[in-house]
Design goal:
With about 140 residues, the chain is mostly helical. The protein is about 25% helix and about 5% strand. Among the domains are: about 35 residues; about 55 residues, no CATH class.
């Protein structure tokens, strides 16, 4: 459809009457989405149409904002850390990174299993996922 001045004026008038975009589209012989697109490009502020026999009801309740959890405290230092550089690491050393002043350092304690970390750092790195019940999942 070519939007001439006549059709634009009609769109503005129908929107001012409070008709829905479906009704406006039918009156102009276009789709609802065409009417919405043109109204947005023209910046026509139109509230959604309310049925004439009912009054607008306030929402039943306002959702409460979720409390903001403080970030977890930094992990306590693990005793007996060797603080090794990348070159000094061996197969049995803990690879938990520690930020040194000049270079990246690693814990260097003895690993206790298949993980690349010692027991204390494995507790920090491997956390059980919190699985939501099916009723709370989005998908």
């Amino acid at each position: 459809m070519i939007w001439g001045a006549k059709n634009i004026a009609k769109l503005i008038a129908l929107a001012a009457e409070g008709l829905s975009y479906t009704q406006i589209g039918k009156a102009l012989g276009i789709t609802k989405n065409s009417a919405i697109g043109k109204a947005r490009r023209l910046k026509i502020d139109k509230s959604p149409a309310l049925p004439t026999n009912t009054k607008a009801k306030p929402p039943a309740h306002k959702p409460q904002p979720k409390p903001i959890k403080p970030p977890p405290p930094p992990p306590a230092p693990v005793p007996d850390m060797k603080l090794l550089t990348m070159i000094e690491l061996r197969d049995n050393h803990c690879r938990y990174p520690i930020d040194g002043k000049d270079e990246m350092l690693f814990c260097g304690r003895h690993q206790d299993g298949k993980e690349p970390y010692c027991k204390q750092h494995a507790k920090i790195c491997y956390v059980e996922p919190k699985i939501k019940p099916r009723s709370e999942r989005r998908f």
